[in-house]
Every structure is written in C-alpha cells, then in structure tokens.
Amino acid sequence: MSKSPLRRLREQAGHTQEVVASVVGVAQAFVSSWESGAAPIGESNLVLLTRLYGCTVDELEAAADTTRAEWIRQRDTRLADVLRRRRIRAGLSRQAVAEACDVSPSAVVLWEQGTIRPRRETLVEMAELLGVDAEQLLVDARYTDEEIAGYLRLTVREMTPLAVLLREARLRAGLSQAQVAAVLGTSQNSVSAIETAQFTPDRTALKRLRHLYDIPEAEAAAAYFETRAQVGLVPQVALPWPLNPRVVPRSQWFRQLRAHLGMTRGEFAERLGVDPTHVNTAERPDTVSLPSGLRNVRVLTILARTAGCSCADIIVGFGGERAAEVAHLVGLTGPELVRASANLAEMLTVLNLYGVTWTTMGKAAGTSRQSPINWMGGAIPHVSRVRRLASLFGPDFGPPVSPDELEELWRRTRDGQRGSEPPEVRAAAGQ
Q: In whole angstroms, what is the distance from residue 37 CA to residue 334 CA?
C-alpha cells in the first residue's frame, strides 16, 4: 500500500508519529487516523502541523484532502451496512449496542460508518445481541471465505464439496451455527470447523445434518464421497453416475458404489446387512457373478436404490449370458413370473439369480439339491415336487403363488418336451 501524502510530509520532516502527537497535544492514535484518512484534521491543529512539517497551510490541506478522499474511496462499508441494518431491524439504539459490547457509543458510530471494524471478540458479542452468529454477519456482508477466515482467525484450508454443501444448506434453512450446534449437542466451534473444512463429520453426524437441512441422501452421499476423495481417503472415481452394472465392469461397479458412499467394506456390509466376506468377493477382479449372499430381494433393493439403477439391471449385469436369456422375466412378482415363464427351467433360473440356492429349492421340493439342477437340464419332475415349490415365493416376490399355478407351469414344461409326440400320447399324458 502506498504512503499517504500526510505521512510523506511527516517523514520528510524527520518526525515520528509519537513526536507529532506530543507537540500537537493529542494521542498518537489521532495522528495515525489523520494519515490513514479515517479522521479529518481539526483547524486548531493545522498551524502547529505546518510548523512541524515545514509546509504551507494550503499544502497541508491539499495533502489531508487527498488522504481523506482516498480513504473514503477504499473504505469497506460491507460490514458497516449489515451492522446498521441488523441493529435497526432489532430495534436497538447505538447506546444499547455500546453498553452490551462494553464500548463507547462513538465506537458504534465508527463501526456503522465503516471507519473501523469491531474486534473479533466484539463482533461475536454483537452477533449474539442481534440473534445470529458472527460468521453469518460476514456472509451477509459478502465477505469471501478467506476474508471470513482471516477476520475470525480461522485456518484457511481448501474448501471441500461437503463443507460447501452443509454451509449453503444451513444458510438456506435460516439456521445459525449456534442453533445447529444445539441440535447436534456439540459446540458452535465444531459446526464452524465442519463448514470451513477443518474436519469431516462422521456418518452419524452427517445423517443428522442431512435431515436437519433436508438434503437429499444422494446429494449428501456424493459430496461426502467427493470430499473423501479430495483428501485422499478413497480412490478417485471417473465413472458416470448413476452406476449401471449392465455397462460397467462388475467388480469395478461394486467397488465404486462403495467408494461413492465413502464407506469401508465392513461399513458397507453392515449397511447391506450381510457378512463382509460377500463384499470382499464382489470386489475381486475375477468376480464373474454376484455372490449368493448378496442375491436376495432386500439386498438387491438397497444396492439398486443406492446406485440409482434397478434390481433387474444388477441381476442382468452380474448374471452374464444366463441372466440375459431370462432378462424379460427379471423384476416380475411371483405369479407374474410363473405365468410368463415358458418352462420350469426359466423360472428356476430367475429364482437362482435372486439368490435362491439349489439346496433351498431341493428342500422345498422334498428332494436333494441335485434334482433342481437336473430340472434345469431338461428333466421333468413329478408334479407333486413342483407343487411344493410354492413355498419359495414369499413377500419378497409379491403375492404368493398357488400350487395350481405351478402345476400349470409344469404342464407347459411337459408339453414342450413332448411336442414331437403324437397328439393322442400328449393327451394321455395330460390326464
């Protein structure tokens, strides 16, 4: 910053501010205010100053006017205007503010003129008096993050997506940091630290903030992941969102889905309600199908909702050629699946893709696990075995399936196998 004309006159005369103040009979702060342009020089002091500086009155007045004009031009009235509006809106006088902040009324006048700014501690006291927090006053004054951090003596760090999201959401909600802190049961400093990227909230705190600010889960999850990626806690993700396993490599899809949430394998397994070994298996590079522990309607629903795709996308994406053959049947309710299946093998394939194991099928039919495998290969079971499979259709597949519906599917399977036999033979078999 260049020196003011008044300061140059003093320095050319070889005097310090302390000497000038002593000769004129004022406090040194007054001399500093003259040289910054914050205060005009009184007429009674002009003659003494011209003698000290060795200049004429016209030269001194010209220097003082130039200094004052430059100060007015550069004066920062952003905070001053906010303080004045807030005080008037609160119905407070300058005297009341001065008493609450333990300063003189003239100090309040200087704050509202933009001549000086209140100290950090005083700004905090004034904010409490006005019913907001100190940072909100600076935000209203359109201070930058760096200016706010400097004023409040915060450590300036690179802002993270989550810090920006939470701060903007709080302001939209019209809440102060103190109010948020009261809800969270923490200090206002902790809320401020979250919003200035001093630290990242854990998932429990983030969930409470998300509900408090009414932030969509997907938006919060994305900001949380991007923040963790920015600080190096999770790998960077360059895949398009939402993730669709029909077009993304299987193991990479699952790994990036977890990374998007910023979770460890154990945390993600806990969210899905499965053993962590299933998550480990799903993320292996040689994974060719979704582990059976993850192939049930409940888990698939959670995965689909998190990734922004459908259960059918996941089943077909992880099922390979076998799933592609029955893709038109995936996503149907139990009765719909039975009616739409061309034969027993198609229905059993879909059930297996949903995580129903051969052992479970065999137990339901009252036989061994090998029998359903044989049926998949074209063997036709006794109709009584097929009717028992109705117990496999629970609430996960919508309305229950009746044994009669399964018997009708059995007939279609049998007739399909005997399509080349004479009509009288097929008719006798149907009796």
A: 84
CATH number of residue 23's parent domain: 1.10.260.40
pLDDT of residue 323: 82
Residue at a domain's end among 294, 319, 344: 319
**84 and 172 assigned to the same domain:** no
Nearest to 353 by CA among 345, 343, 363: 345
Report the pLDDT value the prediction gives residue 130, as an integer from 0 to 100: 84
**Number of structural domains, the chain?**
5
Q: Which of 146, 141, 197 is nearest to 167 (CA)?
A: 197
Q: Is residue 141 part of a domain?
A: yes
CA angle 212, 218, 224 (to 5 degrees): 80
User: Is 130 part of any domain?
Assistant: yes
58 plus 96 within the same structural domain: no
Tokens of 310: 């459908």
**C-alpha to C-alpha distance for 337 and 315, rounded to whole angstroms:** 15
Note whether residue 237 is domain-resident: no
Residue 196: other Cβ atoms inside 10 A: 21
Q: CA–CA separation, 8 vs 114, rounded Å?
A: 25
Residues 6+ apart with CB under 8 A from 6: 34, 35, 60, 63, 64, 67
**Domain range holding 181?**
161-230
Identify the pLDDT of residue 158.
63
Residue 399, token pair as written in the block: 């309305």
pLDDT at 231: 61
Nearest 10 degrees: Cα torsion 18, 21, 24, 29: 170
Determine contact, residues 272/299, Cβ cutoff 8 Å.
Answer: yes
344 within a domain of the structure (yes/no):
yes
Blockwise average pLDDT, block size 10, the chain, 431 residues = 81 88 82 81 85 89 86 77 90 87 80 80 82 82 79 64 88 86 80 76 83 85 72 54 73 75 76 84 76 81 81 80 83 89 91 86 92 89 93 81 93 73 43 36
Q: Which of 95, 123, 151 is the last residue of a domain?
A: 151
